[in-house]
Amino acid sequence: MPEPFKPALWARNPHLQTLFGSLNLRVWGKNEMTDVSEETIVPAGDARLLGYHSRQSGGQAKGLIILLHGWEGSSDSTYMLSAGRYFFRRGYDIFRLNLRDHGKSHGLNRGLFHGALTEETALAVENVAGLFPAGPSYLVGFSLGGNFALRIALKRFQTSPSRLREVFAISPPLDPYKATLAIDAGFFAYRRYFLAKWKRSLRRKQRCFPDLYRFDGILHHDTCMALTEAIMPYYTEWDGYRDYFRRYTLTGNVLAATALPATIITSEDDPVVAVDDFHHLPEHDNLHVHIQKYGGHSGFLDPFPWGCWYERRIADIIEKHENG
What we know:
- By secondary structure, this protein is of the alpha/beta class.
- The protein has twelve helices and eight strands.
- The chain has helices at 14-20, 32-35, 78-89, 118-129, 144-154, 156-159, 176-185, 188-208, 224-231, 241-246, 276-279, 309-322, and strands at residues 38-44, 47-54, 64-68, 93-97, 137-142, 164-170, 262-267, 287-292.
- Strands 1-2-4-3-5-6-7-8 form an eight-stranded mixed sheet, with helices on both faces.
- Helix 4 crosses helix 5.
- The chain is globular, with a radius of gyration of 19 Å.
């Protein structure tokens, strides 16, 4: 059995774990990965996504690790920089991929981001994996990025034969409707954080495409659910926000169709994602669920706040594969 996540008593508070997981102090100091990163535009069907590719010198990488951030995060989110540096130092090439309208990519596509953009994200991941044809590629997604990673594992053979060997999902919301309600009803800092970043993102999109978007009339909403409902007229393909959320809900037996090995890491004390949903996932040879007692939402910091348990756990799993 792998070592469970057991932080010091004083570092077990879920809000402490969650908030410090995104603080810049975690990535102070030299980062060899960002020193060599190259901006890359990735084709994704009718869309283009922005990413940053960091290669090992001499082309001697063990493999490629693709990192996918959470909602309103980016390729420069602290957890992305931390995980990228950790795996780069272990000898892997790193690709930090931005979802549509995240990071500095608002002007790349006229269409607006939403959480159900599975196809373009899967195509982008396939194309990124093609940058390292000589060895294995792995996808690590955080929060909403973890939800995307699990959907990509489901859709593996609906696009083209995948070069991915395994996906990892850190604190993925299986039910985005419930997660949105939890953000609104929970610790005030989460709602304030996500609303501020989402509204800033919508303003950027409006500046890039003033002929398409006029968000000023809906930015007064003070909950994520209210703003979600208000923005639905921009998405004519759905009947409403409940229909929208269903498009990327992964509860019940949805993950029984997982075609690619997938590892989920989550915690019982996650303030955003309901742990009960993980207890009801189907048994499947390709699906491995690690539920920890502590960790908050995408935290798992130990030694607190610089060390990261899930980085070490993913490395153990990958290196076990490599060693047969």
